[in-house]
Design a protein that fits this description.
mainly alpha, 136 residues, 0% strand, disordered C terminus, flat
Length: 136
C-alpha cells in the first residue's frame, strides 16, 4: 500500500506542476495584482488554485507513503514526477517543449535507476550474506 500512496502522490504533484505552469503562462505578471482581478483571468486562477490544492493533497499522500515505506524506497519514487512532467509537457503543444535525444537518455536513466532501486532483490541469500549474520 505504501507504493500506492507514493505513486498517487507523484501523479498529484505532476498534475499540480502542469496546472501551475499553464496558469502562470496565462496570468498577468505578479507585479500587476489589479490585472489578476480581470474576469478574463478566472479560468487561469481556478487552474492555479487547483494546482495548489493538488500539490497539498500530494503532500498528504506522501506522508502516508513515508509511514509505510523505507526512505531508500520512497524517495526514488519522486523522480517519477520528472518523467511524468517531461512526457506530459511534450504532449501539451502550448508549452513549446522540445524533444531531444539527451532528454530521452535522461528519462531512460531515471527509469533504469528506479528499477534498480525498487525491484526486489533476488532470492540469493535473502539480502544477507553468510558473513553478515556472523558479525555483531
Amino acid at each position: 500500500m505504501g507504493y500506492g500512496w507514493g505513486l498517487f502522490s507523484v501523479v498529484l504533484v505532476s498534475t499540480a506542476q502542469l496546472l501551475m505552469k499553464w496558469a502562470m503562462m496565462h496570468l498577468p505578471p505578479l507585479g500587476a495584482p489589479r490585472l489578476w482581478l480581470d474576469p478574463s483571468n478566472a479560468a487561469a486562477i481556478v487552474l492555479l488554485v487547483g494546482g495548489l490544492l493538488a500539490y497539498a493533497c500530494s503532500m498528504g499522500c506522501w506522508f502516508m507513503a513515508l509511514r509505510r515505506l523505507p526512505l531508500n524506497k520512497a524517495y526514488p519514487l519522486l523522480s517519477l514526477s520528472y518523467v511524468l512532467v517531461a512526457a506530459c509537457a511534450l504532449m501539451i503543444t502550448e508549452f513549446h517543449e522540445r524533444f531531444t535525444l539527451s532528454r530521452l537518455i535522461g528519462v531512460a536513466l531515471i527509469c533504469g535507476g528506479l528499477l534498480l532501486i525498487c525491484l526486489p532483490a533476488g532470492k540469493k541469500g535473502g539480502g544477507r550474506g553468510k558473513h553478515d549474520t556472523q558479525r555483531r
